[in-house]
Each structure stands twice: as structure tokens, then as C-alpha cells.
Design brief:
Elements lengths: L2 E5 L4 H10 L4 E5 L9 H11 L3 E4 L13 H22 L3 E6 L22 H16 L3 E6 L2 E2 L6 H9 L4 E5 L3 E2 L2 E2 H17 L8 E4 L6 E2 H14 L6 E5 L19 H7 L6 H13 L1
Parallel strand pairs: 1-2, 1-3, 3-4, 4-5, 5-10, 6-9, 7-12
Antiparallel strand pairs: 8-11
Helix pairs in contact: 1-6, 2-3, 3-4, 5-7, 7-9
The protein binds NADP nicotinamide-adenine-dinucleotide phosphate.
Length: 293
């Protein structure tokens, strides 16, 4: 069986990959404290010991707002750390799939972003992830950078779980309605990673399989749309129906500025790898189903 080493063992994507990969691959999850991305030697020896056929880098400093006051710490993980993982994969001669983010874009475009649109992050987290993309491209020729967005799952801290927690006590919640993006289930990312790896392993020579790809849920939404979908799922299972008050970004100030348009165009992944993620609504429903039953 193929061996996949995934970093960030307790994160949403790694946890999902452990669950979804079980039948198809041996998934080895590497995480802190032993495997710290900021420790180059630990990354090199940890990945070597894992003897992977492919590496997935899902570890990241993901606290978007906190990064504004801790940019150096974010860069050590998302920039330098990603570079260490890329160096390790290159030394082992195995492909690397590296996860990145919609926040490398500033959101000014009026259509979904394509892979080759110019990047221009508006915050420290986006800058640190862009540094990671560059480090990966520089250090590991056989790599694919997969930009995802708005990730939720039954695991860890995420928007869907926050909304379900608010539903327990609140009749109304104000949610931002002027940012558009692609809600993405980490379980769908895991399935897509497995399909991508399978296609990659069948054809390891093609340079077309390398480079940047967008990997998000199909369809688009605002945070308010996403919250409404969650609350309807809760109500359908006998919980209260929390009302969404649609607010503007300006009414909900956060330390990091978020792009108004962070929609990603997924056609390249479908064309090159034949991989397409499900409609976001369907996946939000199954996540809520799992969390509420
Ligand atoms: N979540 C989103 O909405 C979103 C959006 C776009 C892109 N992405 C990208 O998708 C990928 C996966 O995100 P996710 O949602 O699964 O993230 P997550 O749930 O926040 O998990 C990130 C994991 O990275 C680990 N980590 C942090 N610093 C580390 C370090 N120095 N060394 C080793 N591990 C470290 C954390 O470990 P601990 O458990 O020890 O803290 C955590 O388990 C990341 O590349 C992220 O940038 C996420």
C-alpha cells in the first residue's frame, strides 16, 4: 500500500486524511511536539523515518488575526517551515502536495481567481503562506501547491462548529454578508488529495501535474449564506432556528483585513487531475448531520 506522510497531525486536513485514507493508503501523521516545522533537523529526520511515497504538508500557522502581531512566528512555520518540508521531500525524491490559501489574493478581482492571477496578500498570514509557496516551488521541483479556502470539518476549530455552538444559546447572530468565497469541507479535501495522489502516482513524468492548483468546494457563498445553511440544518433536527442578521465587513472589524472576493476557480484541477469537490451545501449538510446526531 502507498504511504502518505501528512504534517500537522491534529489539524482538520490531517485528521480528515487519516479518516478517509484508511482503506486506500497507509497514512502516517507527523505533528508537534516531536515534528515541529520550525525545526529543520526534526523535519528532515522525521520525514526520512516515515519512509513516505508522497508528502502532504497540511501543518500551518492558521491563526489569521493573531498573525498580524506575530508575523515572524507565522513566517517561521508557513514560510521557512514549508521550505524545510520541501527540502526533505526533494532529498527523499518523493512528490510534495503543499496546502496554501485564498488569502494570497487581495480580493479586488470581480471573478473567481485563477492560479496564474497576480498574488497580493492583504495580511500577515497571507504573506507568510505566499512565502511558503515560493519556498516549496524553489526547493522541490516535484510539487503541487494546492490553494484551498474557508475550511470546516467535524474536527478542530472552524466556522461551522462555531455557528453550531452559537445555535445552542442565540436566537440571532450577525454574520458578514459581503465576503464571497468557497466553503470547503476538510473531508472533501482529503478525498481530493487521495484522488490527486492516485493520478500523480500513475503518471509521474508529466510536468503538467506540478505547479499551483485551486482546490475548493464547488459553488460560492458568503459567510452569512454558510451560517444560514448551518442554522437550517440545526432547525431541521429540532434545534432552534437562529436568525442571521446580514452585516458588512465594516461592522465586524478584525485585526486582519480579509478579501471581499476570495472565490477560486477550480477548473485547472478538474482538467489536469480530473478532480472536482462536491457542492458546498451538500458537504455542509453532511458535516452538520454528523455533528448534530
Ligand atoms: N482553515 C482554513 O480555513 C484554511 C483556509 C485556507 C487554507 N488553509 C490551509 O490548509 C492547510 C490545513 O489547514 P487546517 O484547517 O487543517 O489547519 P488547522 O486545523 O489549524 O491545523 C494546523 C495544524 O498545524 C499544526 N502546526 C502549527 N504550527 C506547527 C509547527 N510549527 N510545526 C508543526 N505543526 C504545526 C498545528 O499543530 P498543533 O495542533 O500542535 O497546534 C495544527 O495541528 C494549511 O496549510 C492552511 O494554511 C486553511
Amino acid at each position: 500500500m502507498m504511504r502518505i506522510a501528512v504534517t500537522g497531525s491534529k489539524g482538520q486536513v490531517a485528521t480528515s486524511l487519516l479518516e478517509r485514507g484508511r482503506a486506500k493508503a497507509e497514512v502516517v501523521a507527523l505533528g508537534r511536539p516531536a515534528f515541529d516545522l520550525t525545526d529543520r533537523a526534526a523535519v528532515l529526520t522525521g520525514l526520512e523515518a516515515a519512509r513516505p511515497d508522497v508528502v502532504v504538508n497540511a501543518a500551518a500557522y492558521t491563526a489569521v488575526d493573531k498573525a498580524e502581531t506575530e508575523e515572524a512566528a507565522a513566517v517561521r512555520v508557513n514560510g521557512d517551515g514549508a521550505g524545510h518540508v520541501a527540502e526533505a521531500a526533494a532529498r527523499l525524491g518523493v512528490p510534495l502536495l503543499h496546502l496554501s490559501t485564498d488569502y494570497v489574493f487581495d480580493g479586488a478581482l470581480d471573478r473567481p481567481y485563477r492560479e496564474d492571477d497576480p498574488t497580493s496578500p492583504t495580511g500577515a498570514y497571507g504573506r507568510s503562506k505566499l512565502a511558503g509557496e515560493k519556498a516549496v516551488a524553489d526547493r522541490c521541483e516535484d510539487s503541487a501547491i494546492l490553494r484551498t479556502a474557508w475550511v470546516y470539518s467535524p474536527f478542530g476549530a472552524n466556522f461551522v462548529r462555531t455557528m453550531l455552538r452559537l445555535n445552542e444559546t442565540r436566537d440571532e447572530v450577525g454574520v458578514v454578508a459581503d465576503q464571497r468565497g468557497n466553503p470547503t469541507s476538510a473531508l472533501d479535501i482529503a478525498d481530493a488529495l487521495i484522488a490527486t495522489i492516485a493520478a500523480r502516482m500513475k503518471d509521474d513524468a508529466s510536468p503538467a501535474l506540478r505547479g499551483v492548483f485551486h482546490m475548493t468546494g464547488s459553488g460560492e457563498a458568503t459567510w452569512a449564506d454558510l451560517a444560514e445553511t448551518v442554522f437550517h440544518q440545526a432547525a431541521a433536527r429540532g434545534r432552534r432556528l437562529t436568525h442571521v442578521r446580514r452585516i458588512a465587513t465594516a461592522d465586524y472589524p478584525t485585526p486582519a483585513r480579509r478579501p471581499a472576493n476570495s472565490r477560486l476557480d477550480n477548473e485547472k484541477l478538474a482538467r489536469v487531475y480530473g478532480v472536482r469537490l462536491p457542492e458546498w451545501r451538500q458537504s455542509v449538510e453532511s458535516c452538520c448531520d454528523r455533528l448534530l446526531s
